[in-house]
Amino acid sequence: MRLKVSEAQWCAFAEHLLERTDVESAGIVLARALDAAGGPLLVADELLVVPDDGYIIRRFDQIRIDPIVMNRMTQRARDEGLSIFTVHTHPMATDAWFSWADDNGDKRLMPSLHAQAPGPHGSIVIVPGGGALARAFDENGEVTVLDFDVVGRRLVWHGEARERRADDRFARQELALGPAGQARLRSLRVGVVGLGGVGSVVAVQLAHLGIGELVYIDGDTVSASNLSRVLGARVTDIGKKKVEVAARYVSEAGLPVKVTTIEKPLSSEDIALMRSCDVVFSCVDTHTPRSLLNALAYDALVPLIDMGTAFRVDAESGAITSSGGRVVVVGPGRPCLGCWGHLNADRLREEALSSEERAALQGQGYLGGVDVAQPSVVAFNTVVAGAAVIELLRLVTGFSGSDDPPNRLGFMFEEGTVSRSEVQARATCRCRR
Question: Domains in the chain, please, with CATH?
Answer without folding.
Answer: 2-158 (3.40.140.10), 168-342+374-432 (3.40.50.720)
